[in-house]
Amino acid sequence: MTTAMILSLVVLVAMVAMIMFDVLPFGMPPIAACVLIVLFGLGDVSYAFAGFTNSTVWMLAFFMVILAAIQKTSMIVKVKNAMTKLVEKGGFKSYVALLLVVMLGASIVGMGSTAFYVLIFSLVVTMPYNEKLPGSKLVLPLGIASNHPLIPINVALQYGVAVSVLATAGISESVTMLQFAIVSVFLSLGFLVWAIIGYKFLPSHPVAEPTVENAAALAGDDVEAMPKWKEWVVILAFAVSIAAMLLVDQLGDLAYMVPGVAAFVMLLIKVLDFNETRDNLFSPIILMTAGVIPVANCLADSGLTTLVGNAVAAAIGTAVPPFLILLVFAIMCSTVACFTGSTVGTIMMFAPLGIAVVQGLGYNPMAMAVAVTLSGWCGHYMPIDGLPAMAFGMGKYTMVEFWKFTIPQYFVRLLFLCAGALIVFPM
């Protein structure tokens, strides 16, 4: 290995370690890595901070502002009202309908939204007990459903991570948001299939009262209603931004700036104030996305990525099917993310390695990038952190009851995910 390779590896390891062990606030480790690039003489300042002039990064940054605005509309109240009516009706059909309602809600607020799954939990645990559809049959599946958009029109966060992953691996080519969304549909279908089958494995008992602040506040009852004309402007801005992002290949540079225009409209009509706009425009995920690009350039320019990929590929051999390679890396990534709670950091560790391996074998790396990225949000079989921990506590599940649903679900989702990645990106 050359000196440049060693120093590039040091920068990468330092960045991943800072992410996984919370040495710095989320989003800042890649910026620290950019500083190290300059200090180690791997590039000048413009090279080290090139991610902040990347067109995709700015498109995502502006879109984060739109996402903040869309979550202030009355759509979330409509989701709540629809859920209440279905729970009162009860039965298996209502259970399936509730799954679809929550997954549609996830389509709007986005995959992995903490506010949304807390909202879902708060709604379920405050509804009266109904023997036909007890809360214990709802808390776990609906909580996880909040992580699986049925119509993935809002996958900006995960898409941004996938873009960062490809950049980290030194790949200039990128997936489109439409391609990424199609793969996420397979993941959501895998969840839906198991959730329908797994209904009979869920226990039947009352659930705990919420342990999070005030349920009514979480449900959005105290949110001031937005004037209808503003709501329509927000919805139109959201739709136009999505359309532009999907048509980026046809529209060129214009597509990257459409979300920017929409973001400024949100500020002008005072749906968001300056602080909200600033905090979303330069959110931690945007700093993460921009910061890893120079790290990727170092790895690629030093030749380290190619060296590692060829070495691992030679060790694996050519007899292993592409599907199995995807599945192995998806399992490794999701398991480590599940136990550490560091989703993005874990993805940044496993995805570039997986990409290097498939490149060494002569396969298309896009399937690996997308599959491993989405797998980071697919743990849930251990009640350690966030969503699964809250579901386990509020649902009053035993460990056996929890595992009966989550372990089969874990493998079904990953099988669907890897299959979808290979269909969209044949290797």
From TrEMBL:
Citrate transporter-like domain mapped to chain residues: 17-372
Q: Name one GO cellular component term.
A: plasma membrane
Using the record for this protein, list the coiled-coil segments as residue ranges, or answer none. none
Q: How does it sit in the bilayer?
A: Multi-pass membrane protein
Q: Among the record's GO biological process terms, what is one?
A: transmembrane transport
Give the domain of life: Bacteria
Keywords annotated in UniProt = Membrane, Repeat, Transmembrane, Transmembrane helix, Transport
InterPro entries xrefs: Cit_transptr-like_dom (IPR004680), DASS-Related_Transporters (IPR051679)
Write out the annotated subcellular location: Membrane
Which residue ranges run through the membrane? Answer: 6-24, 56-75, 96-129, 178-197, 232-248, 255-275, 281-300, 307-331, 337-358, 402-425
In its UniProt entry, what is this protein called? Membrane transport protein
Q: What's the source species for this entry? A: Collinsella tanakaei
